[in-house]
């Protein structure tokens, strides 16, 4: 089966080919004989009822400094593609949301991964609230009195921007920390959205697991251990990746959320688990495929393409 595949992603020249999950997906697609095309979100347009993009044929190879070749640009009707991979990184802003609206017009005739309507309806930090029985105590609010009352109850808390990514803007506020009022002022200045507040989970010192699910099924796990003196475990901010075997609780969480992910057409998702708790469900541009494979886990790119081909 040969598919035409358009990849909507961030600048390909800037990616880290040793870690980038989109690059892993592109390599696997090319190995299967699929025809690849590349474009960025700003090359996506809607004109006279047609979703178009200025794309360039793409060839990839695992050679640092020489990992891709692009052909001549051409304007195409995206509905003529078999598959579109929506793989640009957040922030999940109005530009991102607009792209989901446009791509929704060609899905499912052209299979968009992940389903753009469901991506729009499942922001990572909000979607997790669907599964309240497996999440830590959580507050989403802009009301300082609500946040202060939550802190008074739980003492040690984490503040997060609701639509952030990569660990940016995440703060731990300990019981004796006097900076909460200043932090709330800062959040109000920089963000219009409510803040996510969660009880701090001491188990994060042993790591924050990234678990990959493909079509709602467990497909590998990676542990990310925070650097000394750091509350965040994201690899963007120095978290150390290490091999990990899923616990009974990890698999239980996957069983709880998996059917909903599958029903929503969320083929490739990455969840974050600290101790016994689910903290985020990443549906926009999940990462971790290469690290999981490197530590001896499943080849997630193969599993994802198996799922895509089965749907086509």
Automatic annotation (TrEMBL):
The keyword Nucleotide-binding applies. GO terms for cellular component: cytoplasm. Its cofactor is Mg(2+); Mn(2+). Pathway: Sulfur metabolism; glutathione biosynthesis; glutathione from L-cysteine and L-glutamate: step 2/2. GO terms for molecular function: ATP binding; glutathione synthase activity; metal ion binding. Keywords: ATP-binding, Glutathione biosynthesis, Ligase, Magnesium, Manganese, Metal-binding, Nucleotide-binding. InterPro entries: ATP-grasp (IPR011761), ATP_grasp_subdomain_1 (IPR013815), Glut_synth_pro (IPR006284), GSHS_ATP-bd (IPR004218), GSHS_N (IPR004215), PreATP-grasp_dom_sf (IPR016185). It catalyses: gamma-L-glutamyl-L-cysteine + glycine + ATP = glutathione + ADP + phosphate + H(+). Belongs to the prokaryotic GSH synthase family. This is Glutathione synthetase. It comes from Rhizomicrobium palustre. The gene is gshB.
């Amino acid at each position: 089966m040969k598919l035409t595949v358009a990849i909507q992603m961030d600048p390909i020249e800037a990616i880290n080919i040793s870690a980038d999950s989109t690059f892993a997906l592109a390599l696997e697609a090319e190995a299967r004989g699929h025809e690849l095309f590349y474009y960025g979100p700003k090359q996506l347009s809607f004109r006279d009822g047609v979703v178009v993009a200025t794309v360039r044929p793409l060839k990839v190879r695992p050679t640092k400094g020489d990992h891709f070749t692009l052909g001549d640009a051409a304007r195409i009707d995206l509905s003529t593609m078999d598959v579109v991979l929506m793989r640009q990184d957040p922030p999940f802003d109005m530009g991102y949301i607009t792209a989901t609206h446009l791509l929704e017009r060609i899905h499912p005739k052209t299979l968009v991964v992940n389903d753009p309507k469901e991506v729009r309806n499942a922001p990572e930090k909000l979607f997790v609230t669907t599964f309240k029985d497996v999440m830590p105590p959580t507050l989403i609010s802009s009301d300082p009195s609500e946040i202060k009352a939550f802190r008074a109850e739980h003492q040690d808390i984490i503040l997060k921007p609701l639509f952030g990514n990569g660990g940016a803007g995440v703060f731990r506020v300990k019981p004796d920390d006097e900076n909460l009022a200043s932090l709330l002022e800062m959040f109000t200045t920089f963000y219009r959205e409510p803040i996510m507040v969660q009880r701090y989970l001491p188990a994060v010192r042993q790591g924050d697991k990234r678990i990959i699910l493909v079509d709602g099924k467990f497909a590998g796990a990676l542990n990310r251990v925070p650097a000394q003196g750091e509350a965040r475990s994201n690899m963007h901010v120095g978290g150390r990746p290490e091999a990990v075997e899923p616990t009974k609780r990890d698999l239980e969480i996957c069983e709880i959320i998996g059917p909903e992910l599958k029903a929503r057409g969320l083929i490739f998702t990455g969840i974050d688990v600290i101790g016994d708790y689910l903290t985020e469900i990443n549906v926009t541009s999940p990462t971790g495929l290469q690290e999981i494979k490197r530590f001896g886990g499943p080849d997630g790119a193969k599993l994802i393409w198996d799922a895509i081909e089965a749907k086509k």
